[in-house]
Known about the structure:
Helix content is 47%, strand content 19%. By secondary structure, it is an alpha/beta fold. The longest helix has 22 residues, at 2-23. It is globular and about 60 Å long.
Amino acid sequence: MVRLFVLAAIGSCIALTAHAQTAIKRPIRSIVASPPGGPSDVQMRLFAPKMGEALGQTIVVDNRPSNNGIVGAELCARATPDGLTICVGNSGTHAINQTLYRKLSYDVIRDFQPISLLGTTGLVVAVNPKIPATLQDFVALGKKRPGTINVGIPGATGQFAGDALWKLLGIAVNNVNYKGSSPAEIALLSSEIDVALLTPLASMQHLKSGRMRALGISSVKRNGLMPDMPTMMEQGVKGYAFEFWNGIFAPTGISPVMVKTIHQAMLHAVNAPDVRDRLVALGFTPGGEPPEVYTSFVRNEVEKFRRQIIESGVPLL
């Protein structure tokens, strides 16, 4: 029975690969709605060679940065659903934006077919070395100088996670928008801003060098790469937990066969030891869930953030 199952699985993979090689004649464009060097960009460039190997096609990463990733997400939503255009969406572009914006140029549920999750991670609340590095001292500074602490906003996840945190801490800050994680990271290093919520990928090396310091991490549990960094909940911020995630989407209307084909290519990539080890080394928990599981996950995230945004009273854009 097991042998029959394995043979069937192999046959399915061969059929999917054959379909991909005959149906796809041009390079596949993967739209990343942020600048090079950010978490979505780095993960897609890590996956692209292995996925291309499985598909027998080149995957070209097309960076389209904008505030909260709207431009890139809209480009993907409007693309022809032939399997030649995919995109990397995240908890901001494909969950938070749906409620955060009064008039969004795309609909997460209607306009996209989720393929699979790339990875998840918590957000480091990173500060410039000139800012107090304990949460208690930071709160005291915020209350002493309301509205003077500049917070870099790399995307919708960082904005909402930050706004919710400042509200729980009872401090007023000044949000400064950037077109992705990399510009916010540079701004923090150059003292253009005082604090930013960044992934371990964007902050880890700077924390080690002392060019940034950390107030804590937003995840439910501590990150294995930074076991000494406490979560915000451990420091008394009750109920505060945010995870940044990203994954691959295609425009609605893509054929079920192509969905399976792209997912198989993702599995080929995520199960490659060099890719998986690199993801973990960058602070991510690898994904790879089937399309139907990922679709349910995205829908739940949209609804979860809808409730949280409404309950938090964060101003809509």
